[in-house]
Write a structure and sequence with these properties.
Blueprint lengths: L13 H9 L5 H22 L2 H28 L6 H31 L3 H21 L4 H20 L4 H42 L10 H13 L6 E10 L1 H8 L1 H18 L5 E6 L2 E9 L2 H16 L2 E3 L2 E3 L2 E9 L6 H18 L3 E5 L5 E3 L1
Parallel strand pairs: 6-7
Antiparallel strand pairs: 1-3, 1-6, 2-3, 4-5, 7-8
Helix pairs in contact: 1-4, 1-7, 2-3, 2-5, 3-4, 4-5, 4-6, 5-6, 5-7, 6-7, 9-10, 10-11
Length: 379
């Protein structure tokens, strides 16, 4: 699906938003460090104050923090999936956000309670912990400000306002300074978020263009290789695979007679027919010129590869309407079927190309064979 093809309500491409949601799960180590820091500083504050409410808040905060780390750890594998949809990504983000903001709220209550107690010696430790937490939020999840900003506000504002209410100019200065830092951090976070949207969008657009054939809009050889690695070589899938090598017969005379624009239009139309003939789980790519490759995965019988080859030939054989001309071409196909997913793509393409050569030399249209029994079948 094109990167800019589906827009969400804010006009932001869904593919970009998925990538920004993934960024939440790169901050596991800082989150773990913050949990340890909260445990140590919180335990010291509780020990110094002997306050039962602080003890309850400390225990609750540690439980929620542990939940946050567990959710982050177990969701990390799901969030890295290449086929992740925007709906799935938002649900994972919701599971991440609940304990994350919950911990920030408990931290804010812990800070407010500590600042309200008459223990000036521990107030500095508290503010250092709160400022450090906000800095960690800004560094770790700034690309999702709808989670980061509420977390920063609920964690540090209660303690800062409590300090501001004290009849002491030192506390006033400290509170105003902390709030100014918070405002500056939120402003910088917004700018960083907008830059990330733009840069991520550009990066993904360029990556998509590098993997797409400029004429037919089909995937190119690079995209075919990556798809093969992700969906065949390293995938937990079932059934055999078939690699088809397709060549258009009669294309060059049409290109020479009607000109390159007509030839390009014919290639594009043929590519569309190929794409509409295969399943969503399969892959078609233009290799160059009038040659195409199709990877058919999870097939139960080798006959399924022959049936697809026949459907492709039938689709190409139908007349094409190009510039008021009814143009007719045909296709030759060589294919190879294998149950061994350890075979390299280039090796399979080479074998399918040999089948294609046999088809064109023998004027048979389709030649295929299975690597497992090495028995050739021609159609």
């Amino acid at each position: 699906m094109p990167l800019l093809g589906i827009m969400n309500s804010r006009g932001q491409p869904d593919a970009v938003e998925v990538e920004l949601i993934r960024s939440l799960f790169y901050a596991f180590v800082p989150a773990a460090i913050m949990s340890v820091g909260f445990a140590l500083c919180g335990a010291l504050i509780v020990w110094k104050t002997r306050d039962p409410l602080l003890f309850c808040l400390l225990v609750s905060g540690l439980l929620v923090s542990a939940t946050r780390l567990v959710v982050t750890h177990f969701a990390a594998s799901s969030i890295r999936r290449k086929d992740l949809t925007i709906g799935e990504a938002r649900r994972i983000e919701g599971r991440f956000a609940l304990p994350y903001v919950g911990f920030a709220a408990l931290l804010g209550m812990f800070g407010q309670r500590t600042m309200a107690l008459p223990f000036p010696a521990i107030h500095m430790l508290l503010m250092c912990m709160l400022v450090g937490y906000c800095a960690g939020v800004a560094a770790g999840i700034a690309l999702r400000p709808k989670i980061a900003i509420p977390s920063m506000l609920v964690s540090i504002v209660p303690a800062a306002l409590t300090a501001l209410a004290k009849p002491d100019a030192t506390y006033w200065t400290m509170s105003l300074f902390v709030l100014a830092l918070l405002a500056g951090g939120i402003h910088s976070m917004g700018r960083r978020h907008h830059r990330a949207i733009r840069n991520t969008g550009l990066r993904m657009t360029f990556a998509a263009l590098a993997r797409k054939d400029g004429l037919t809009a089909l995937p190119n050889r690079l995209a075919l290789r990556e798809w093969f690695d992700d969906n065949v070589s390293y995938a937990h899938a079932y059934g055999a695979i078939a690699v088809h090598y397709l060549d258009l017969n009669g294309f060059k005379p049409i290109n020479d007679t009607y000109g390159h624009p007509a030839g390009d239009a014919l290639l594009t139309a043929a590519a569309r027919r190929i794409a509409h003939t295969i399943r969503d789980s399969d892959m078609a790519a233009r290799l160059g010129g009038d040659e195409f490759a199709i990877i058919q995965r999870d097939i139960a019988h080798p006959q399924e590869a022959e049936l697809l080859a026949r459907r492709l030939c039938a689709a190409i054989a139908r007349p094409f309407k190009i510039d008021e001309h009814d143009l007719k071409i045909s296709a030759s196909i060589g294919y190879v079927v294998s149950n061994d997913r350890a075979h390299d793509l280039e090796h399979l393409l080479s074998l399918a190309d040999k089948g294609l050569y046999a088809s064109k030399r023998g004027d048979r249209g389709i030649t295929g064979f299975s690597l497992d029994d090495d028995q050739r079948a021609a159609a």
